[in-house]
């Protein structure tokens, strides 16, 4: 690598740094979006469970399509209402008849479930977008980095040409920077 021109080495280092930043940003966005989607599912399940507890009727907690979710009342007291503790317990599992993994919420004698297939599709789309867009962004940023490195090295190249021609006075840039000190 040390035999490569400085401009190329800077571009490779910039591309590697950009890849790390994009990977970290992608992971952050994925985790954030997943948590937000999970919270939406949990809120919907809690509302559906509350409707079933309030009415005692499982139909009040149905998701719409039978493949998207379910609601059950698994025990009743003598008065016909749902009984048991109201502290919810939730988890994810495979449920026969429901597409994909299902988030299940148990609240007393009420069990409601929601397919996570839509959430999983959104997350897969997000991963695909980063998988396609990330390399493209790195390539574009690397081209810009290569051009910027070239413009930064232009005064050095001018000094090299003058020195090779045998001129005693090297061209110095106006800025009081490292290049001027080198000249």
Produce the secondary structure layout.
Elements lengths: L5 H50 L13 E5 L14 E7 L6 E7 L2 E6 L1 H48 L13 H5 L1
Antiparallel strand pairs: 1-4, 2-3, 3-4
Helix pairs in contact: 1-2
Question: Can you describe this structure?
Answer:
By secondary structure, this protein is of the alpha+beta class. The protein is 56% helix and 14% strand. It is built from 3 helices and 4 strands; from the N terminus they run H-E-E-E-E-H-H. The protein has helices at 6-55, 117-164, 178-182, and strands spanning 69-73, 88-94, 101-107, 110-115. Strands 1-4-3-2 form a 4-stranded antiparallel sheet. A hairpin with a 2-residue loop joins strand 3 (101-107) and strand 4 (110-115). Helix 1 (6-55) packs antiparallel against helix 2. It is rod-shaped, with a radius of gyration of 31 Å. The model has no long low-confidence stretch (mean pLDDT 85).
Concise summary:
This protein is of the alpha+beta class and 183 residues long.
Please count the beta strands (DSSP E, at least 2 residues each): 4
Distance between the termini: 26 Å
Proportion of beta-strand residues: 5-15%
The major sheet is characterized as: 4 strands, antiparallel
Overall body shape: rod-shaped
| Widest sheet: strand ordering | 1-4-3-2
Number of helical segments? 3
H/E series, N to C? HEEEEHH
What do the pLDDT scores average to? 85
Radius of gyration: 31 Å
What are the key terms here?
single chain, 183 residues, alpha+beta, 3 helices, rod-shaped, four-stranded antiparallel sheet
């Amino acid at each position: 690598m040390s035999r490569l021109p400085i401009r190329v080495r800077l571009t490779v280092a910039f591309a590697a740094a950009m890849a790390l930043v994009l990977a970290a940003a992608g992971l952050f966005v994925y985790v954030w979006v997943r948590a937000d989607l999970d919270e939406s599912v949990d809120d919907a399940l809690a509302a559906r469970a509350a409707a079933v507890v309030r009415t005692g009727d499982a139909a009040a907690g149905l998701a719409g399509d039978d493949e998207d979710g379910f609601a059950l009342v698994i025990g009743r007291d003598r008065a016909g209402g749902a009984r048991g503790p109201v502290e919810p317990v939730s988890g994810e599992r495979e449920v026969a008849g429901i597409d994909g993994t299902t988030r299940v919420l148990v609240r007393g004698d009420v069990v409601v479930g929601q397919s996570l297939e839509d959430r999983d599709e959104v997350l897969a789309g997000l991963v695909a977008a980063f998988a396609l867009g990330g390399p493209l962004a790195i390539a574009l940023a690397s081209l810009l980095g290569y051009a910027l490195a070239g413009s930064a090295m232009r005064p050095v190249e001018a000094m090299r040409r003058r020195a090779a021609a045998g001129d005693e006075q090297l061209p110095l840039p106006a800025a009081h920077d490292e290049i001027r000190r080198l000249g």
